[in-house]
Design brief:
mainly beta, single chain, 17-stranded mixed β-sheet, 12% helix, 4 helices
Length: 425
């Protein structure tokens, strides 16, 4: 087994491997030869581990417990790898599982035919089929949510309009659990729209059937004081396609943990993200893509801008390639643009490779300030400095925003970014 923080660069990868300030990222030669079997996931879950049992790597380092029982999960101290960036005191007690507050969260679902929407108990067989909690907050979300929302897209169907799930916080503590099942050969788009104010812990389970296609757009447009901690888990079937767009703009603290696993060969996953971290905000995205079957593909591209004192963005990108995952093609990219002093970005890409027979595997991470050459180019053509900076940021995000196929969402995100840029000097 080879654990490789490979230093970047792969032809045909999403986005340029160069840093925001124009410097080039280093290049790695892949595939990386390895021997032996997969030793598990570096920071996330490992398939096949019994609920309640600790998973250990050969070096005896304990891995997260897989269990719905919150008490089975240790209370983090902040020294653990998976919690070391998170300001635990700002979680507002979610680690202790406070009781939900009445009317703290309003949930509405707009679903076109033939999509069905059900509100079921947490003992429903579809709850927990894709996601088993690996931390206390996720376990509390699964046990304290009153009901789960199950959205089913029938096999071989293609709804003409997206399914829109609106979650509006009215203050207080709330828990939620959402299950989306897309049948074989079906195609659908689901939008999660988070607004208002709440202390919210949620789980999202996504099952993409064989040869099916699912696009998920998760928009975190909370008010300034909101706290949002969520685990998203997607299982991608044989020859299926999954695309996700995670857009994080508002909230005091947002911590999202998307995970992708493959249920058969030929699966394709693309995970895109955009975040704008303002003064005092903490925005954390912890991704895990687990390549188990052969001949699967993944692309990850997250871009963030930061401004103001105390702005803190965290991006963790873990990709695991198992011993049987021959023919894997994967690449992950994170780029951060620091607009003012006082902002901090932490970026940690990781590759764990247990086979030498991969098509490609690489990652790139870059954090920097404005591209001085681009600014000079624009200003030399008569564009004022402030407007030139705004144009650079718009272009920086364009790769992500332009991929979203819903016009109203693209316009809303562009307007939100423009409003944020109003504070850039």
């Amino acid at each position: 087994m080879v654990t490789a923080p490979v230093h970047n660069g792969s032809p045909g990868s999403p986005g340029s491997p160069s840093s925001p300030d124009g410097s080039s990222a280093a290049t790695a030669t892949v595939p990386v030869p390895a021997a032996g079997s997969s030793t598990g996931l570096p920071f996330g879950s490992r398939p096949g581990v019994a609920a309640g049992a600790p998973d250990r790597r050969p070096d005896s380092r304990p891995q997260p417990v897989h269990s719905r029982d919150p008490q089975a999960h240790p209370v983090p101290t902040g020294r653990e790898e998976e919690w070391r960036f998170t300001p635990l005191r700002r979680l507002r007690g979610l680690l202790a599982g406070p009781e939900a507050t009445d009317a703290a969260l309003e949930v509405s679902v707009q679903a076109p035919p033939p999509v069905t929407v059900e509100h079921v108990g947490l003992d429903d067989a579809r709850v927990g089929r894709v996601l088993t909690p690996v931390d206390r907050v996720s376990a509390f979300a699964m046990t304290r949510a009153e009901r789960a929302v199950v959205i089913t897209v029938p096999a071989e169907s293609a709804p003409a309009e997206p399914v829109i799930v609106r979650l509006h916080g009215g203050g207080g503590v709330a828990y939620g659990h959402l299950v989306v099942e897309v049948g074989a050969f079906a195609s659908a788009t689901v939008v999660l729209d988070h607004t208002g104010a709440a202390t919210f812990a949620g789980n999202v389970e996504l099952s993409v059937g064989d040869s099916a296609s699912l696009t998920l757009v998760s928009l975190q447009d909370w008010d300034a004081g909101a706290v949002h901690v969520a685990a998203h888990a997607a299982a991608v079937g044989r020859d299926a396609r999954f695309r996700s767009f995670t857009v994080t703009l508002g909230g005091d603290l947002v911590r999202l943990s998307p995970t992708v696993t493959y249920a058969g060969p030929g699966g394709d996953a693309e995970l895109y993200g955009l975040f704008f971290t303002d003064a005092g905000q903490h925005q954390e995205h912890r991704l895990l893509v687990d390549h188990g079957p052969r001949s699967c593909r993944s692309r990850v591209a997250y871009k963030g801008a930061l401004q103001g004192d105390g702005a803190h963005a965290v991006w963790i990108g873990d990709v695991v390639i198992g011993a049987d995952a021959v023919g894997t093609d994967t690449y992950e990219l994170n780029r951060n643009l620091v607009l003012t002093d006082g902002a901090r970005a932490d970026s940690v890409p990781n590759l764990e490779i247990s086979t030498g027979e991969v098509t490609g595997a690489g990652h790139a991470s870059a954090t920097g300030r404005f591209d001085d050459e681009a600014l000079f180019y624009l200003m030399a053509r008569g564009i004022p400095a402030d407007e030139a900076r705004r144009l650079v940021v718009r272009g920086f995000f364009a790769e992500i925003v332009d991929r979203i196929e819903i016009d109203s969402l693209r316009e809303r995100i562009a307007a939100a970014v423009e409003a944020e840029l109003g504070g850039v000097v």
